[in-house]
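Hi W.,

Here's what went into the run:
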Amino acid sequence: MKKKLDLPHILTVIIIIAIYAAVFIAEQHMPPTSMLFTVLKKGATYALVAVSMNLLNGFTGIFSLGQAGFMLIGAYIFSIFTIPVEHRGIVYQYYDGGVIQFTLPVLIAMILAGLVAALFAFLIGLPVLRLKSDYLAIATLGFAEIVRTIFQWDKLGPVTNGSNMLRLFPTFNDFNIKNADGTVAVYLSTIIPMLIAGVCIAIILLLINSTYGRALRAIKDDEIAAEAMGIHLASHKQMAFCVSSFFAGVGGAMLAMYQTTVQAKSFTTAMTYEILLIVVIGGLGSVTGSILSSFLFVAASEWWLRFLDQKQVINGFEVPLLRNGFRLVVFSFIIMIVVLFFRQGIMGTKELPDLFRKKKTAEGGAK
Amino acid sequence: MWNTVFPYLLSGISVGGQYALIAIGYTMVYGILRLINFAHGDVFMVAGIVMVYMAASGLPLWLCIVLDLVATAIIGFAIERIAYKPLRTAPRMSIMISAIGVSYTLQNLVLYITGGLNQIYPKIPWISDSITIGSATTKVVTVVTPILTILLVFALVMLINHTKVGMAMRAVSKDFETSQLMGININSVISTTFVIGSFLAGVGSTLYFTNYTTVIQTSGAMPGLKAFVAAVFGGIGSVPGAVVGAFIIGIAENLIKGLDIILFKMGLISKPMGLAIFSDAFTFALLIIILAVKPTGLFGEKSIDKV
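Here's what came out:
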């Protein structure tokens, strides 16, 4: 691929910079409790995890369902190493303050979270990546369940706090720059997570567009042909699996910061399914699609469709069916419609720059 | 020693029988469509919920059970027609995603209908009574399950080996396209498979929820996954294999639940280790080991394309 900066790429860069600038400005002027920021924070987290899953399921053709497991590892590693020493006595109240008595800086803890997730991926990848599609899916899913159990085991309590909650570690709000008197001078609690996710996704994009990335696509299209072309299947799959897990781990750390608490029992198979469905809605094989659909999914579930869960009375007429849980039912049906009738998802395999190539339609798709 | 182990063994055999009834649905569908029907565990859960609501409507209990089984079979049939049939020529990944979508939909529908609260499963007379066998006090259902399972499996094996539908099923699972050329209506064969699988899951749910007494939207996920592991362990596509696998997993799981107490009574450990939480994890560890060591399972055909 030539490093030529053509118009579509320049436009893409401008749009991305504009979005970041808009978020930064909005954050300084709107109340920090606005739903918009909740959506952007959670959306950024999900976008990173969805893109990392897309790298496996969409680009390499490895149907892995272990995402929640790697996120759990990331979330735990991050929170275990960042809880301030003075708070450990409260958090680890049943385990005499735990065994780890030091803290790491946030950024290093995040990278460590990714590395440990990648290490686990490497180990589990050795037996599991030999398997074909559905067997791989069920084996990785099983792995996620095993991880969830191990982290809840009472004997590991001094490290993982057993089945109790981990809390009081740094959260997104700690990114805000504060004055001496405690008032916030510059709000950064939304822009920093978005930047972290952005940098991680950019790295994944670089990988996808490299020789390795093209090899991965070749594996997806036809394993035998790819092998005949001299691509070493096992090492390429292993690499994709580890890279994907690394970013799932980082995503897990971000989720921990978003939620402000971590508990192993919340990282269920249902979480993996949700991320998989986000990837499918965005389009298997499109990074832009995964990002868009993450934000759409989070915005719809946390904000726009919330009204479906409450009773609505319009002019004295009570709208039927609306009560707790209806939002999820509507969601499920949208998902089934996408899965059955729009298998391409929002973007198919297209990326943002591709949208500008088709002259006139450019404005419509990019937003 | 025996008195400590026996109650766990007994409940293991019982749970194993219930897993077996679910596992048959997985193994048959996989044999024919090469699809892991991720929604099967949720069909099992829906059967439980339907039963709760029917019993609440005041119908006689025996009629409820019959109607519940019919309803479950219809649900299985409908899922196949709506969610899997349109994707028959699509890549395998699409059908699997569709199956996951169905699972998500069923769980959310039940969450909406029940409000996410635990539903108390109706008490079925006789099989809910308690009896004492040796050192164990248990419900009659514990004893009934393995017997009923074996009877049903026997009937199913007869059906597969000695009837025309069974022959068609065997043909379709051997070679999808050729059997179509031979004039077999594959759509009706596939529907039959789903109906039988869902019916057995319905029977399994009656037995399982009589034992565990509450149903919630996530009740089907874990038994479903374990039954799938049982099907793989026994060799997927093989009905007797799935049954043997299910019994082994059921027993192993329950022995691990009691492992702390058993080891303690044997004097091997001095205080509880909290090992009981590994009862679920063990099943999946077993899955990964069996896939790595003997991917065809205990009774599987040689040439299945899984590695």
